[in-house]
Design brief:
Blueprint: E1 5-10, E2 13-14, H1 21-25, E3 30-34, E4 37-41, E5 51-55, H2 69-73, E6 76-78, E7 83-85, E8 90-92, E9 102-103, E10 114-115, E11 124-131, E12 135-144, E13 157-163, E14 166-173, E15 188-198, E16 201-208, E17 218-226, E18 231-232, E19 237-238, E20 244-246, E21 248-251, E22 254-257, E23 263-270, E24 276-283, E25 288-293, E26 300-305, E27 313-318, E28 327-334, E29 343-350
Parallel strand pairs: 6-11, 18-23
Antiparallel strand pairs: 1-2, 1-5, 3-4, 7-17, 8-11, 9-10, 11-16, 12-15, 12-17, 13-14, 13-16, 19-29, 20-23, 21-22, 22-29, 23-28, 24-27, 24-29, 25-26, 25-28
């Protein structure tokens, strides 16, 4: 493969260099260098064409060898539970006058800070990692994505997540009402790319600004979780991550409950020694939320009176412990006096 590429010419004319494979795909002609791999695109003229590549020589791996084990030791070691702090990895700013700075304004980040802005298409962060154990992972991005002053700013903010040069997932971060509170406690959310199969050895990860509503978010870290592990009930559990939804619909980071008897089911929640239950929601109709173990109608863990003012509330009540650890948890919604239910749920947790 190629050691480096300084320019590519088509019949003597220099082609444009693009910063991503997606950007090249959207162009008529040009080239993109991904590590040691060169992609070139140009129209088929049905004529003989001369392609000239100025490069730093060929790099030929020794026959029968892959990545040098010593090279793997220099990479970020990834296993279940690994957290990669994005302020510590490679950052690329498409517009150097704007940049892609490290910041500490919104508290609640892990590590020493977060990467701020991502304001230009083509901005990205990237890192190489050595996956120590093959398996199926949930890749969790920690995101801060607040609403700007414009009240029409409602569309999910977009990007792309790349694995080894290919796009693994489109990103669509739901906008929160604020970036954080007046004390600068940031509204950080987990965005999960589920069930990613990773083999052992070297992999390259990249998060890039692109798509229909690109950028304008802060990124803190990437966490590698066991896709098959129970959910930690003492951490906030996003309503949109429910395994079962009845008479409810996901709307960005939240779930809108629309009818009497609606239910959200979470099939494997572990939190031994529960004494309290906390939930963030808003509602206009009142009614009751009942928290069940195993299934709706089984053991009642807690009940919560639903609000009627349409404002967001974080409500805390006492809770019984579950009989099993882990166990299925169901949230069931009952209307007041047989009326309809209008409730939006953000998250819940046990305490």
């Amino acid at each position: 493969h190629l050691g480096s590429v300084s320019s590519v010419k088509l019949d003597g004319k220099t082609l444009t260099s693009y910063i991503s494979k997606e950007a090249l795909d959207g162009a008529q002609r040009g080239y993109f260098v991904d590590g040691n791999t060169l992609y070139v695109k140009f129209p088929d003229s049905a004529k003989e064409t001369v392609l000239t590549v100025e490069h730093g020589g060929m790099v030929l791996p020794e026959e029968g060898k892959g990545v040098d084990p010593e090279d793997l030791d220099d990479l970020i070691a990834v296993e279940v539970g690994t957290v990669v702090e994005l302020e510590d990895v490679t950052r690329y700013a498409a517009n150097t006058s704007i940049g892609l700075p490290i910041d500490t304004e919104w508290k609640g980040y892990t590590g020493t800070g977060f990467v701020k802005g991502f304001k230009c298409t083509g901005d990205y962060v990237t890192f190489d990692a050595n996956v120590k154990t093959a398996g199926t992972y949930d890749i969790v991005l920690r995101v801060n994505c607040g609403k700007k002053n414009d009240n029409t700013d409602r569309a999910d903010r977009t990007g792309g997540f790349y694995l080894d040069g290919g796009k693994l997932s489109e990103l669509a971060f739901a906008i929160t009402e604020t970036w954080g509170d007046s004390d600068k406690n940031g509204d950080w959310r987990d965005y999960v790319i589920e069930n990613v199969a990773l083999s052992t050895g070297k992999h390259t990860f990249k998060i890039m600004v692109e798509g229909s509503n690109p950028g304008h978010y802060n990124l803190d870290c990437v966490r590698f979780a066991d896709a098959n592990a129970p959910v930690n009930g003492f951490s906030t559990i996003a309503a949109r991550d429910a395994d079962v939804m009845t008479n409810a619909v996901a709307e960005g980071n939240t779930v809108h409950v629309t009818a009497d008897g609606a239910a959200l089911g979470f099939l494997s929640v572990i939190a031994e020694g529960k004494t309290g239950f906390e939930i963030r929601l808003s509602g206009t109709t009142g009614g009751t939320l009942t928290v069940y173990e195993t299934g709706v109608g089984d053991k009642i863990l807690a009940t919560v009176e639903l609000p009627t003012d349409g404002q967001w509330h974080t409500l805390s009540v006492e809770s019984r412990d579950t009989d099993a650890h882990p166990s299925p948890i169901y949230l069931s919604f009952t209307a007041a006096s047989g009326e309809s239910v209008d409730v939006t749920v953000d998250w819940f947790k046990f305490t």
